[in-house]
Amino acid sequence: MSTETLEPEIVNPEKAPEDKPPVFGSYSRRSFLARLGATGVAVASPAAAMAQAVDPQVAAIRKGTHAVHLSINGKLHTLQLEPRVTLLDCLREVVQLTGTKKGCDHGQCGACTVHVNGVRINSCLSFAAMHEGDEITTIEGLGSPNEMHAMQAAFVEHDGYQCGYCTSGQIMSAVGLLKEPCGPDDHDVREAMSGNICRCGAYPNIVKAVQMVRGRMAQQRVDA
Ligand code: FES
Ligand code: FES
């Protein structure tokens, strides 16, 4: 058995014969970077040239945007959007209403809940362009720090949050629930709110807040 040590062959790529492909690992750091840089220039140059040659009007059409008119919190917005833009991304990225949160972006957490014509929906599952003529309400349109909606005040009173990330979705969902058929008990509220996940586990206080508002509404109906 041979005891000869096998050393990796050191190949200088600049001097490598034409018929012998360079071996991976045979580059010096300098020659590798030199080759990478040359390749980068070769790839980037035609794209850069093309970008310069494109007429701005043609570029705008290529983007595939369309004018979309949305009524959000009582204000009409005329926006230039791609058809694929979700209502959630439109609200957060275009209109800058960042109170609506993105948790999963897949309809599983409820952080993105808003109202469309008074009905709660997951805005991550809906395209913005579908909502021309609808009245969209976000947490910013529900109340203000000085004039909170009863549900916002109830969440504050009952500590219905910890980190707060899910809270705007929880509150929008809870307000939507007030107009829906829902049994009187805590487990009915938990069921109706099951689409809103709270990683902090603030559920008991959320249920208390919702039940407090429901109780007051019921009392007002009795008094009326
Ligand atoms: Fe829409 Fe989670 S971000 S349901
Ligand atoms: Fe933190 Fe609900 S308060 S996720």
Main sheet overview: 5 strands, mixed
Number of strands: 5
Bound molecules: FE2/S2 (inorganic) cluster
CATH topology (level 3) name of the largest domain: Ubiquitin-like (UB roll)
Number of separate helices: 8
At the first level of CATH, the class of the largest domain is Alpha Beta
Number of domains: 2
What share of the residues lie within helices? Answer: 40-55%
Tell me what portion of residues adopts beta-strand conformation: 5-15%
Question: Any idea what the CATH superfamily of the largest domain is called?
Answer: Beta-grasp domain
Q: What is the molecular shape?
A: elongated
Judged by helices, strands and strand pairing, the structural class is alpha+beta
Question: Termini, distance in Å?
Answer: 102 Å
Would you list the SSEs in sequence order as H and E? HHEEHEEEHHHHH
User: C-alpha Rg, in Å?
Assistant: 29 Å
Unreliable runs? 1-27, 35-51
What does this structure look like?
- The protein is of the alpha+beta class and 224 residues long.
- The chain folds into two domains: 49-142, Beta-grasp domain (Ubiquitin-like (UB roll), Roll), CATH 3.10.20.30; 143-224, DNA polymerase, domain 1 (Orthogonal Bundle), CATH 1.10.150.120.
- 41% of the residues lie in helices and 11% in strands.
- The protein has eight helices and five strands.
- It has helices at 29-53, 56-63, 87-94, 139-142, 150-157, 167-177, 186-192, 203-223; strands spanning 66-72, 75-81, 113-116, 119-122, 135-137.
- Strands 2-1-5-3-4 form a five-stranded mixed β-sheet, with helices on both faces.
- Strand 3 (113-116) and strand 4 form a beta hairpin.
- The radius of gyration is 29 Å and the shape is elongated.
- The model is unreliable at 1-27 and 35-51 (pLDDT under 50).
- Residues 102-105, 107-112, 122, 124 line the site of one FE2/S2 (inorganic) cluster.
